[in-house]
Amino acid sequence: MKTAICYYSRHHGNTRKLLEAMAREGGVDLIDVTVRQAVRLEEYDCIGIASGIYAFAFHKAVVEFARQYLPEGKPVFFVYTYGGTKGTGAKAVAQIAAEKNCKVLGEFGCTGYNTFGPFKLVGGSAKGHPDAQDLENARNFYRSIQKSFDAKRQK
Question: Do residues 6 and 65 lie in contact, with contact meaning Cβ atoms separated by under 8 Å?
Fold first, then answer.
């Protein structure tokens, strides 16, 4: 299964850490949505969309990227990290996926170290996350996506 995961990860690189763990499973290209590049997502079997949670939602750059580049009818999954709460999480990109008739294969989220805003005053929240268990859970999530996809392809 050839997978592209389109992401935004800046604050502490929490989301990128999860994606790098998933990429070790093979067949994954990580695409930073802030880097200008030619994107041909229709060449992939599956598309991941990933972001930290900013102001209770996916970063606007990821949402706009999905709106512009997500191909019609591609299977998708969502990955995110959050400091305090996941808020509405992947709601905006899930809506775009629905509008483009993309089947959602699942979503994975976990806490990530956060020093944004008032959290900076207390040394941050979710210190040490994503940790080794979070990374293993992310790999297991991606493996389940791979197995599900491969099983459907063999039918």
Answer: yes
Q: Inter-axis angle of helices 60-69 and 91-99, to 10 degrees?
A: 10
3-state secondary structure at position 132:
helix
Residue 41: CATH number of its domain:
3.40.50.360
Q: What is the pLDDT of residues 111-136, one digit of tens each?
A: 765 545 545 545 554 565 688 999 99
What is the rounded CA–CA span in Å between residue 62 and residue 59?
Answer: 6
Q: Which domain holds residue 120?
A: 3-154
In sequence order, the 6+-apart residues with CB closer than 8 A to the CB of 8 are: 15, 32, 33, 34, 50, 51, 52, 58, 59, 61, 62
* Contact call for residues 133 and 90 (beta carbons, < 8 A): no
